[in-house]
Design brief:
Domain GH18: 24-398
GO molecular function: chitin binding; chitinase activity
CATH topology: TIM Barrel
Number of strands: 15
Helix content: 25-40%
Keywords: Disulfide bond
Structural class: alpha/beta
Shape: globular
Strand content: 15-25%
Oligomer: single chain
Strand order of the largest sheet: 1-2-4-5-6-7-8-15
Number of helices: 12
Order of helices and strands: HEEEHEHEHEHHEHEEEEHEEEHEHHH
Pfam families: Glyco_hydro_18
Radius of gyration: 22 Å
CATH superfamily: Glycosidases
Protein name: GH18 domain-containing protein
CATH class: Alpha Beta
């Protein structure tokens, strides 16, 4: 009997290790300003919570005077309450408060990242924990873009951000012990350019304190550039040199690994939008073609050179549109009206990125942002949330027997054998001269 119990314990342990290793996150980024759009507004009622392990609710700010939490948008209480109440039905769902955003504001981070003012950090930590517990959030995402960046957060640098992260984690642990509640989750977004990583972060000083690192692996190429490029390329093109050869997900992941980041904490960002360009020559429409500048804005995005996924689907239905696939970057691009070019994500490119995540034992993926996906299924003929479903379906697919195929299907792009991360570290990330 004892022998049988021992064998059963071993089997249970073995299975727990397998299933733990295969437990990926698929995070859904919700931006509260999408509720206010005059066209196709998006609300909490339209979220498919089955497709998310985490809801990243954006965006809060830090009041620099009181060091308390405030919101960018007014009148957010109704949808926020619905999202928080979704945990009644979806027991394992985590709701994460996001502080900060992607534009040029500092969102109050400067008031809590002065390394010479640890009292401000302590006060903010106390206020943040009280707020998260009061409204039943499960953690916080620090979306600080980027510590010490000129014109965004120039006053204090990576040292202050490292100290803030350590103090927050210490507070989260202490509070969990006292309250006897599950410890709050601590996440941070991370820059996705290899030449920015050491400039903005002390990886060795923050990695043990962060539960997740959300890599902003989109906008690796922008429409303001004068050449067409796929914005979230998985791998580099053979003819790319210098810094441009690192504007891809594989190189970014490899760089973080070489700096000491843990693969199982890295979450890859997937854009639910594309970057568009106006071609200089309509006959030259390959990736890398010369462009006059950004393409026309979308009705939803209202930003030159940016189109949501469902707006891209509308463009793809035009009679003169042509869709192509880039074998190097592993991503699609669309040419329409003869002179406009869009690099974007579709279900196939998402699938390739999920294979990459699994082959490298990364933590999972997040979609920025779910309101830009075809959330009602009326534009792409792929059902509701095609991109989000592609993420979830591949990350939850039982592939134990095909693991070798998954690894080989990725590694042949970069090396002949071995784990992908080893190949990437040796081949994809190479030192280069500064531009």
């Amino acid at each position: 009997m004892a022998k049988q119990n021992y064998q059963l314990a071993l089997i249970t342990l073995f299975l727990s290790i397998i299933f733990k290793a295969r437990c990926y996150v698929y995070m859904c980024w919700y931006v509260n300003w999408s509720e206010l759009r005059p066209i196709r507004p998006f609300s909490a009622d339209q979220i498919d919570y089955d497709l998310c392990t985490h809801i990243l609710y954006s965006a809060a700010v830090i009041d620099p005077k009181t060091l308390t939490i405030a919101f960018m948008q007014q009148n957010v209480s109704e949808n926020l309450e619905k999202i928080l109440n979704s945990k009644i039905k979806y027991k394992n769902l985590k709701i994460i408060l996001t502080i900060g955003s992607y534009d040029t504001k500092s969102y109050g981070f400067e008031s809590v990242t002065n390394p010479n003012d640890t009292q401000a950090m302590l006060n903010f930590s106390n206020n943040l924990v009280a707020y998260l517990r009061k409204f039943n959030f499960d953690g916080v995402l620090l979306d600080y873009e980027f510590p010490g960046m000129v014109n965004r957060a120039p006053l204090f640098t990576k040292e202050g951000f490292s100290l803030l992260i350590r103090k927050l984690k210490r507070k989260f642990k202490e509070e969990s012990i006292i309250s006897e509640k599950t410890e709050l989750i601590l996440m941070s977004t991370m820059a996705a350019r290899v030449d920015w990583i050491n400039k903005f972060y002390e990886i060795d000083k923050i990695i043990s304190y962060l539960d997740y690192m959300l890599l902003l692996t989109y906008d690796l190429k922008r429409s303001s550039e004068k050449r067409t490029r796929i914005t979230s390329a998985l791998f580099p093109k053979a003819n790319e040199t210098g810094i441009y050869s690192t504007f891809n997900i594989a190189s970014v992941v490899a760089k973080y690994l070489t700096e000491g980041a843990k693969a199982n904490k890295m979450v890859i960002g997937i854009p639910a939008y594309g970057r568009s360009y106006e071609l200089t020559d309509s006959l030259d429409n390959m990736p890398g073609a010369l462009a006059k500048g950004p393409g026309l804005p979308g009705l939803i995005t209202d930003e030159t050179g940016v189109l949501s996924y469902f707006e891209i689907c509308d463009k793809a239905q035009k009679n003169d549109s042509k869709k192509f696939w880039d074998e190097s970057n592993l991503g699609p691009y669309l040419v329409y009206d003869e002179k406009y070019w869009i690099g974007y994500e579709d279900m196939d490119s998402v699938y390739e990125k999920m294979l990459f995540i699994k082959a490298n034992n990364l933590s999972g993926a997040f979609l920025w942002s779910i309101d830009l996906d075809d959330f009602d299924g009326k534009h792409c003929s792929q059902g509701k949330y095609p991109l989000l479903k592609a993420i979830r379906s591949e990350l939850t697919f039982n592939d134990y027997e095909t693991n070798d195929f998954l690894i080989n299907s990725i590694t042949h792009f970069t090396c002949s054998q071995g784990r992908v991360v080893q190949c990437l570290q040796k081949e994809l990330y190479k030192p280069h001269d500064k531009d």
